[in-house]
Design brief:
The structure holds two protein chains of two kinds. Chain A is of the alpha/beta class. Helices cover about 40% and strands about 15% of the residues of chain A. In chain A, the strands form four sheets. In chain A, strands 7-6-15-13-14-12-10-11 form an eight-stranded mixed β-sheet, with helices on both faces. In chain A, a hairpin with a 5-residue loop joins β10 and β11. The chains are: A alpha/beta, B mainly alpha. Chains A and B meet through α1, α2, α3, α4 and β3 of A and α1, α8, α17 and α19 of B.
């Protein structure tokens, strides 16, 4: 190749380089301008995306308005989620990532696994379903839960584990609240306290937890149970779960237990109540493969978790699979207790259980005619637990502790319940922010 | 607005480049560039634009007055002093008022309210640019710009206005009047910008995440970090600060080349330095040369008795530290380097020159890494905790699972960042270019690499920006 030819070809290469660069800039720029492609919610992250900011002179003058435009542009960029996936795959090459600790909250946050506030109507599925009398069809991509933060996540062997930090004062406070509820409702109602561990409490060896500088969930749960007054039934689910931790009792990519994990808590409940549990193998199942849950979204789409998706297996109650759920605006929707979510987004499959987190729901098992009634105050762990109760009571009522405005005394009186099960995970039982709410519900 | 954002890259910069392509006349290009620059600057709060516009006006008038007073040395000096004083007073009010009040309140144990004045973005950069312009006019090195808007364009050019380099007027005055970028320059600019963007979005932000994992904790938690955690965080922060700052210079130089502006290099692989003096010849070159030309040499430089040289060193390094932030830790950081340079010059006097290069290089790197701990913590309690922790004096042992996982999870990335801080990549690129002369296959391979690198880096950087809401910009405080 002569020098002249080389110079000519080099010039052409430079020209192609400039054109290729300009083409990428233009295409990406035009995509960014196609407003109709911009999403408003992220199903993956379970949150509403940033809105274009409303104009105000003060925001304009101090630059807040412009900063919010920046946020809106990046947050709703049409290719954002695939770009995040690429970024995560790139980060997976940064080192040996068979084990990781991911802090999805930032150092200052307490990291509760609960929503920051009570959702308003019109957010996510509540707003859509409020208009619908019959069973609404939720489109794929509907946001069914508020965003949840998972705190520090330890990922090993492509499974996520939430690290827990013991807060003695909050746990003591939680137990005291349970005791106060018992004092208020008296002995005519059986109060059961169920504090499920997360997967790290049920699955991880304590030495691993110690190495992480985290606390023992088992010890924390036993601490709470030891503080419960005589007459309050502490359910020792953690011991039962640890006995079965070779089974598929927790999701790998999500902070919840599986229906089988909830089953072993139900077995512990039956032991405490003195009744015979049903055998889970006698139930019909529904299976939803390729589930990528909250650990996956909290870790910004960890490739390690993506390589190990879960299957949600739900056991359909025999007595009835129908329930009614009440939204915060008072509208009531008929819904399956175990729902077919095969057309849902793969990050939403835990919503198969009891329609997600609602202020108030009820199921009537017409195969039982003894007037028996149970009230469950719960967090999202309770969703997989409630279907196991259906075949033991004529009426099953449940409230999500984060969204309900009811009090236990009022509900006990209104619905003539004999059993109250107060179920919140150890993470939420330790949450400082939730203590006031538990006390309010306990009135 | 920051360079490392999707809005900037895909909307603002694209529109800016299109304007420079489709507008034919240089005057039209300049007007468009000024409008874009003012919008860019306003993005952080339009009210600060008034300050920029006002300071440019003061310096524009000051320089014209100085030029017209040729032959009247005393009045010229007065005009120069007044213009510089005006700039420094404005800088002082906006950057140092709170710092001074807090310092004196501390000294006199007074309960004075500390004013919280928001620092206008880029004020330290454009103030120094304008001072250099006025002094150069005074020295007769450049002619005063007769058109106000042209001087405003120089000071507000969005390529370098908020993160440097500190561009001297004499370096761009010709480009402002006549510029016609060649295909070669645009091509170089495209690569340089893409490398800078990727360096910032992928490498610097990645290092920041590692450093913050151990450094951005409260005093109690920082005290729990074992020695290896502090060392890992200090190493990551050392890489971060270089990759971050040099990335902004790369992007500025690249964008400049795409539009026909030629900015000087601001970094020259500082972490391969064999001495502290060499480090500062390679680190933030435009700032170092500013203090050399406008402070150190006017004070007499090293052509004065030793005591005065020591004074000059003290003044320069005190000011260098203070320029980086209105906090005593920055002053301490600056003086740390002043002392090291003084030791090199007056005590060692080249006695270590016989040491093997790797030994000198590692020694300098460790000293610089230590200096970044002083730089990182504006709170002296946190700084002391980190320094004690580095030497294992917080009683937390050597390492922990957190630390070893953070290291293992990022080991290849850290090695890559360390290599990216050296000229090895540039060497490999040159090697490939030389090899391409040896045959048609290698020539085309080099061509494909040449075309693919900027596009791939641009897309990967965009992906990292989308996936990384964590996007700290270290130099906003300047």
């Amino acid at each position: 190749m002569t020098r002249k030819e080389r110079a000519r070809l080099n010039g052409r290469i430079r020209g192609i380089k400039i054109m290729a660069f300009a083409a990428v800039m233009l295409v990406m720029g035009i995509i960014g301008l196609l407003l109709f492609l911009r999403p408003e919610t992220s199903t993956l992250e379970k949150r509403d995306l940033a809105k274009f900011p409303a104009f105000s002179w003060s925001d304009f003058a101090d630059g807040t308005w412009f900063k919010d435009i920046d946020t809106w542009y990046a947050d709703t960029y049409p290719l954002r989620e695939p770009m995040i996936a690429v970024s995560q795959k790139m980060e997976h090459l940064y080192g040996i990532r068979s084990q990781q600790i991911i802090d999805s909250t930032g150092p200052e946050e307490e990291a509760p696994l609960v929503a920051e506030s009570i959702p308003e109507e019109g957010e996510g599925v509540q707003g859509q379903a409020a208009e619908i009398e019959e069973e609404p069809v939720l489109p794929d991509g509907t946001v069914t839960d508020l965003g949840e933060r998972a705190g520090k996540i330890y990922i090993t062997d492509n499974c996520g584990y939430q690290l827990y930090y013991f807060l003695e004062a909050n746990n003591a406070n939680f137990a005291a609240t349970m005791n106060a509820i018992h004092d208020r409702v008296g002995d005519k109602v059986n109060l059961y306290v169920l504090v499920p561990p997360t997967s790290s409490g049920a699955m991880l060896d304590q030495s691993v937890v110690d190495d992480m500088g985290a606390s023992s969930e088992e010890d924390a749960i036993h601490f709470i149970n030891s503080r419960l007054a005589d007459g309050v039934h502490g359910i020792d689910a953690v011991t039962e779960l640890r006995k079965h931790n070779a089974e598929y009792i927790y999701f790998h990519t999500d902070h919840h237990w599986t229906a089988l994990g909830a089953y072993y808590a139900y077995v512990a409940f039956c032991r405490e109540k003195g009744i015979q549990p049903h055998d889970y193998q006698d139930y019909e199942t529904m299976e939803f493969p390729d589930f990528l849950g909250t650990f996956y979204t909290s870790s910004n789409q960890s490739p390690a978790l993506a390589s190990n998706p879960d299957t949600v297996i739900a056991y359909v109650p025999k007595g009835t699979n129908r329930m009614t759920m009440t939204y915060t605006d008072g509208s009531v929707v008929d819904w399956p207790i175990v729902n077919d979510v095969s057309d849902y987004n793969r990050t939403q499959l835990y919503a198969t259980f009891v329609g997600g987190d609602r202020p108030f729901s009820v199921a009537h098992n017409e195969t039982i005619h003894d007037g028996s009634a149970v009230m469950v105050i719960k967090d999202s762990f309770g969703n997989a637990f409630i279907p196991w109760l259906v075949d033991h009571y004529e009426y099953i009522y449940w409230c999500d502790a984060r969204y309900t405005n009811n009090t236990i005394s009022q509900m006990v009186a209104d619905y003539n319940v004999q059993d109250v099960i107060y179920e919140v995970s150890i993470y939420n039982a330790s949450s400082e922010k939730m203590q006031g709410r538990y006390a309010t519900i306990g009135q | 607005m920051v360079f490392a954002s999707l809005l900037f890259v895909f909307l603002f910069l694209t529109a800016n480049i299109l304007s420079q392509i489709f507008i034919r006349s240089v005057k039209g290009k300049n007007i468009a560039m000024l409008v874009f620059s003012l919008i860019f600057y306003s993005w952080s709060g339009p009210r600060y634009l008034i300050l920029l516009v006002g300071m440019v006006f003061i310096c524009w008038i000051g320089a014209l007055v100085i030029q017209r007073m040729r032959g009247e040395e005393k009045r010229r000096k007065t005009a120069l002093a007044a213009t510089i004083a005006a700039c420094l007073v404005i800088l002082g009010i906006f950057k140092y008022t709170g710092f001074l009040v807090a310092t004196f309140a501390g000294l006199f144990h007074a309960d004075w309210p500390i004013p919280h004045i928001v620092l206008p973005i880029g004020i330290s950069f454009y103030t120094f640019q304008l001072i250099s312009y006025v002094v150069d006019v005074y020295r007769g090195q450049v002619k005063a710009q007769p058109k106000y808007w042209m001087l405003l364009l120089y000071a507000s050019l969005f390529h370098q206005c908020i993160a440097g380099p500190i561009v001297r007027y004499q370096d761009v005055q010709q480009d402002i009047v006549t510029r016609r970028p060649t295909v070669g320059e645009i091509s170089t600019g495209v690569t340089r910008f893409s490398v800078g963007l990727a360096k910032k979005a992928i490498l610097a932000n990645g290092c920041a995440a590692i450093a913050d994992q151990f450094f951005d904790l409260g005093a109690d938690a920082l005290g729990q970090v074992p020695a290896m955690g502090i060392l890992l965080a200090a190493f990551a922060f050392t890489l971060q600060i270089y990759l971050d700052f040099s990335a902004y210079s790369d992007m500025a130089i690249g964008m400049g080349l795409m539009c026909g502006f030629h900015y000087k290099e601001n970094f020259n692989y500082p972490y391969i330095s064999q001495s502290i003096s060499e480090f500062w010849r390679r680190w933030h070159i435009s700032l170092g040369s500013f203090f050399r030309d406008y402070v150190y040499i006017p004070l007499g430089g090293n052509r004065v008795p030793v005591l005065l040289q020591l004074r000059n060193l003290f003044v320069v390094w005190f000011l260098t530290g203070l320029w980086h932030g209105a906090s005593w830790n920055f002053v301490l950081w600056g003086l740390f380097f002043g002392v090291l340079i003084g030791v090199e010059r007056f005590l060692l006097r080249g006695r270590l020159s016989g040491l093997p290069a790797p030994v000198k290089g590692i020694g300098v790197f460790l000293l610089v890494m230590f200096s970044w701990i002083l730089f990182k913590f504006t709170d002296f309690t946190l700084m002391a905790t980190a320094v004690k922790g580095l030497f294992g004096l917080n009683g937390n042992g050597f390492t922990s699972v957190d630390v070893s996982l953070a290291f293992k999870n990022n080991v290849f990335f850290l090695i890559f960042c360390a290599v990216a801080s050296t000229p090895i990549g540039k060497g490999l690129r040159n090697l490939l270019k030389n090899l391409s002369l040896r045959g048609r296959g290698l020539f085309w391979f080099n061509g494909v690499v040449e075309i693919a690198i900027p596009v791939c880096l641009l897309l990967l950087a965009a992906a990292a920006l989308a996936g990384d809401s964590y996007n700290p910009f270290l130099y906003f405080r300047f």
